[in-house]
Amino acid sequence: MNKSKEILLAHGGGGTLMHDLIKNVIASRLSNPVLDRLDDSALLDTGGRLAFTTDSYVVRPLFFKGGDIGKLAVCGTVNDLAMQGAKPLAISLSFIIEEGFPLDDLKKIVKSVGSAVKAADVFVATGDLKVVERDGADKLFVNTSGIGSVRKDVNVSSHYAKVGDAVIINGYIADHGVSILCEREGLEFESPVKSDCAPLAGLTQAILSTTKRIHCMKDPTRGGLAAALNEIASSSRVSIEIEESAIPVRRATLAACEMLGLDPLVVANEGKVVVVCSETVASTVIRTMRKHKYGKASKIIGRIVNKGKPEVILGTTIGGSRIVDMPYGELLPRIC
């Protein structure tokens, strides 16, 4: 764990620093069987099975190609529920607004929230609003929580990956993080990179209705695909092999990453899901995913190959291999 006695910006990056902070400072002091699993959302048995999650959004800038902080907040919360196999039901919506924030911008964001909840088939059930003094919140922060119902026959978790399983992703990676960076820095490319921000519960429910052999679903947000796969490997105590040539990356996104010195594997996504399923149903899962508008570019990118040693191994396009480590800190702060 980092020896600093202060919180660093990198502690929020989805990598090793953040995971150590959560494990050693927060979760260790609040330990209970539900929290200790540290999945994307908590599974609660209340007579029925409910998934529950919460998240806060501090993205900068507030508006970007493909969305804004309002759409991002809805999609992020809905997707955390979806990763638990839940059908999202309702969300909360809370604003922390800095004094002087333009009212017209708030109206645009609320309108975006309205469109996003409609697309995700949920509703805003409750909320809160706080206003702080100038320079107290960097314009606007948003917090959302969500609940969803989980069928009795659905049982997915980062802890359940099995040797021989296929690893699938539903499309092109790294678009969101690159989009935010380009917007923030005023960078322009011949083909503009647009955030992949999207609600995925319809896609995940379609998969779960097709087969009971889905073992794990994970959204590769902060820390990107590298962090998501390392979390699965660590939770399930398995090794994962992925093929560089199989991982879909748009040409414009890859060009931006190369120019900026970024590895697409560690850049955040907001409309992607990693699906780990039995090899015997992988082709069926791919067909189902490709029928959905958010899964048309779905591909098998790797497999679970070994039990015991948690690591992610990338087969490179030149015939070699390398270990894909959990990112350490934050390459792109304030992206969600």
Write the layout of secondary structure elements.
Blueprint: H1 16-26, E1 42-45, E2 49-57, E3 63-64, E4 67-68, H2 69-82, E5 87-98, H3 103-120, E6 123-132, E7 140-149, E8 166-169, H4 175-185, H5 201-210, E9 214-218, H6 224-236, E10 238-243, H7 251-260, E11 274-277, H8 282-290, E12 299-307, E13 311-315, E14 321-323
Parallel strand pairs: 5-6, 10-13
Antiparallel strand pairs: 1-2, 2-7, 3-4, 5-7, 8-11, 8-12, 9-11, 10-12, 13-14
Task: Describe this structure as you would to a colleague.
The protein folds into 2 domains: 39-149, 60s Ribosomal Protein L30, Chain: A (2-Layer Sandwich); 166-323, PurM-like C-terminal domain (Phosphoribosyl-aminoimidazole Synthetase, Chain A, domain 2, Alpha-Beta Complex), CATH 3.90.650.10. The protein has 8 helices and 14 strands. The protein has helices spanning 16-26, 69-82, 103-120, 175-185, 201-210, 224-236, 251-260, 282-290, and strands at residues 42-45, 49-57, 63-64, 67-68, 87-98, 123-132, 140-149, 166-169, 214-218, 238-243, 274-277, 299-307, 311-315, 321-323. Strands 9-11-8-12-10-13-14 form a 7-stranded mixed sheet. It has a 5-stranded mixed sheet with strand order 1-2-7-5-6, with helices on one face. α2 (69-82) packs parallel to α3, α2 runs parallel beside α5 (201-210) and α5 (201-210) runs antiparallel to α8 (282-290).
Short description:
The protein has helices at residues 16-26, 69-82, 103-120, 175-185, 201-210, 224-236, 251-260, 282-290; strands at 42-45, 49-57, 63-64, 67-68, 87-98, 123-132, 140-149, 166-169, 214-218, 238-243, 274-277, 299-307, 311-315, 321-323.
